[in-house]
Design goal:
The protein is 31% helix and 21% strand. The protein is an alpha+beta fold. Strands 1, 2, 3, 4, 5, 6, 7, 8, 9, 10, 11 and 12 form a twelve-stranded mixed sheet that branches. The protein has a five-stranded parallel sheet with strand order 16-17-18-15-19, with helices on both faces. Strands 14-13-21-20 form a four-stranded antiparallel sheet. α1 packs across α2, α7 runs parallel beside α12 and α9 packs parallel to α10.
């Protein structure tokens, strides 16, 4: 069954040899660029076009036409190729449409060599664009996927290739257009031409969306929403670097897309659909901001180039010619920035509307602590697929946060950094937003060291409470190492509700006792799994998944305890033992580089907003905000109380025996 994609959506490819079928209704030039891991083009050999239609693993048509078939053998591509972008450009012919907005909406279909449909995408919303990146095939962790891109350019192939980083892009674009020019003999008019023109509007597949000018449609293709009522302002031409359908003022050309719907994504359950929708929102925001930053960089480089040209011409030193040229260049720069921001604002408006309907619909595992869903929370019968650790946002849009979800069971430990590097920077728009959104009270200005340590422990308790609350009663437990006893106040909700049997044993003896018990558990579970003898586990062994919170590290740790901690970090997750460090890395310098593998194995979180999470896809540095309960709220204690009641009820049923924890 063919997967119908919308702009920004991706789909896995289960085979390496595919055919890309293009139906445009009007003559277009088809080509392919072969990008490296960063998406850059190393040289002219990375462009497959009618003048050079064959490269290893790729073959494209040699002429402009209304329909094309491109063959791709992903296994035959050079190892350095990580991205295959399919390009379309309008052919320069007499009587042909000047822009994609005046032509039927082109469609792209990926099929197997036997014609089996894999994925399809119809490029709706194009207006003044003359060239477009339709789809891209990209390699991620050894597997190939296809993504619907729809990135349009009003300045044609030259702007498209320049945006992809190709040197001498204008010359290469002219070469492609010359190679695709029609043969006067072969392209002579025939009596069949009017019939072909009459069929042009239906040249796309039966499932294609009719051409329309307007904003990008983020909807899932199976959604049955109705358009929002009310007219919209008229649109003006978008910039060359703006996404398809953008207008200079940010207003759509026609009525906006239907209101978004929570859970409007692929998946077998509502939980999976919401998870996939959140991931799609993350990708959409990352891509839209990346496009805006790219357009801004292009505008800046173009301004610098034009100013250099002004200064390089000695004739401009006389009269007012230089001043006029500089003013014109700055005006063009400002216009490009305005158009780029308008395109970004249009995408952000759609994502914000989607976030406003998705956030209230999230289940407890995905929801913030201030979501009303926690007020009616009941202990689940099975573990969810993911857990929310906080929120992510980018500086271009401070009021749009994307939930940061991690899959369960945890595959790596967590490290809540309580050191000085995690303190908020000097006040600014981003930091002020973080203070405003955090549930706990932050003092004016950056928090001091004591405040950071307190918030770090509070974040650890909040995450532990979430993990306990989203697991069935008796299937998850928490243990704490606190050699100095400094965490007693923060741990009170866990101790008073019975989530912790009692306060942690202080000193080195308490450290050794907890570590030895967990290592024994890991070893026994590993032996039971290898021998397939779960029934042989000792009856006193708690087979529930365990979360070990280590506070005030390395206080109370000797070399033997550090070795045991590293063992748990490496072997624990596969046996159901998970580590959460609440520590300042600088305080463990005395152990030298021996702890470097430990820190690298943990997912670093911060107790205050901090831009430290790198996105390898587009290179963004995302600002992470911890998921803390609102100030003065008792929601965490209430959830733990309900969990204690469910645990007591489950104990009264006296089950036959706890199951062996899942292994990875």
């Amino acid at each position: 069954m063919t997967a119908e994609l919308v702009r920004g959506q991706n789909h896995p490819l289960d085979r390496s040899r595919v055919e890309i079928r293009i139906a445009a209704g009007v003559p277009v030039v088809a080509g392919v660029t072969l990008g490296d891991e960063q998406g850059g083009l190393p040289g002219a050999e990375a462009v497959v076009h009618p003048g050079a239609p064959r490269r290893p693993g790729i073959e494209v048509p040699g002429q402009a036409a209304a329909e094309h078939r491109l063959t791709v053998d992903l296994d035959a591509l050079p190892a350095a190729v990580h991205r295959v972008s399919v390009l379309l450009a309008l052919a320069a012919r007499s009587g042909a449409p000047a822009t994609f907005g005046a032509a039927p909406a082109p469609s792209v279909r990926l099929t197997a060599l036997d014609g089996t449909g894999l994925a399809g995408y119809t490029l709706t919303g194009l207006t003044v664009e003359t060239a477009v990146v339709a789809v891209e095939l990209y390699r991620r962790q050894g597997a190939w996927k296809v993504r619907a891109v729809g990135q349009g350019y009003a300045d044609g192939l030259a702007a498209l290739l320049h945006d992809q980083g190709l040197a001498r892009a204008a010359e290469r674009a002219a070469e492609i257009e010359a190679a695709a020019a029609p043969d006067p003999v072969r392209e002579a008019p025939t009596r069949e031409a009017p019939f072909q023109e009459a069929l042009a509007p239906s040249a796309t597949s039966a499932t294609a969306t009719p051409a329309a000018t307007g904003p990008v449609d983020y909807r899932h293709p199976d959604r049955r929403s109705t358009p929002a009522p009310g007219p919209t302002p008229p649109a003006t031409a978008p910039s060359a670097t703006a996404p398809s359908g953008a207008s200079a003022s940010g207003a759509p050309a026609t009525d906006g897309p239907p209101p978004p719907v929570a859970g409007d994504a692929a998946g077998w359950s509502m939980e999976e659909r919401l998870y996939n929708q959140i991931w799609g929102m993350f990708e959409d925001l990352a891509r839209s901001v990346a496009a805006y930053r790219s357009a801004s960089d292009f505008a800046a480089s173009r301004l610098a180039q034009e100013l250099d040209e002004v200064l390089a011409d000695p004739r401009n030193r006389l009269g007012t010619a230089a001043d006029v040229a500089r003013a014109t260049a700055r005006d063009r720069h400002a216009t490009l920035l305005t158009r780029a921001r308008a395109a970004l604002d249009r995408d952000l408006a759609q994502l914000t509307a989607e976030s406003e309907v998705v956030e209230p619909a999230l289940p407890p595992a995905f929801a913030r602590w201030d979501n009303p869903v926690w007020q009616g929370h009941h202990v689940p019968l099975e573990r969810p697929m993911a857990l929310r650790l906080g929120d992510l946002h980018l500086p271009e849009v401070l009021d749009l946060c994307i939930p940061m979800l991690v899959r369960l069971p945890l595959e790596r430990g967590l490290w809540i950094d309580s050191g000085p590097d995690s303190r908020a920077a000097e006040p600014g728009p981003e930091r002020e937003f973080g203070r405003r959104e955090l549930g706990s009270a932050l003092t004016d200005g950056p928090p001091d060291a004591a405040e950071v340590r307190r918030l770090a422990l509070e974040a650890a308790v909040a995450i532990a409470a979430r993990l306990l609350a989203v697991h069935p009663a008796g299937e998850f437990a928490v243990q704490v190492i606190d050699p100095g006893g400094a965490a007693a106040q923060a741990l009170a909700p866990l101790v008073e509700t019975g989530a912790l049997p009692g306060p942690p044993v202080p000193g080195a003896q308490g450290v050794a006792t907890v570590l030895e018990g967990l290592i024994r558990r890991v070893d026994l579970v590993q032996m039971a799994v290898r021998s397939r003898a779960a029934d042989a586990l000792p009856p006193d062994l708690d087979t529930a998944e365990q979360l070990l919170i280590v506070h005030d590290f390395p206080h109370g740790f000797d070399d033997r305890a550090v070795t045991m901690l590293r063992y748990l970090a490496d072997e624990g997750p596969a046996a159901g033992v998970h580590l959460m460090m609440v520590a300042d890395r600088a305080q463990a310098r005395e152990f030298g580089p021996v702890l470097d593998p430990l820190w690298r194995s943990l997912l670093r979180l911060t107790p205050v907003p901090d831009a430290h999470l790198a996105d390898p896809w587009v290179g963004h540095a995302w600002t992470y905000e911890p998921a803390l309960a609102p100030k003065g709220s008792q929601v965490v204690r209430q959830v733990l109380t309900r969990l204690a009641e469910a645990r007591r009820a489950a104990a009264r049923t006296e089950p036959a025996g706890p199951p062996l924890p899942p292994t990875t």
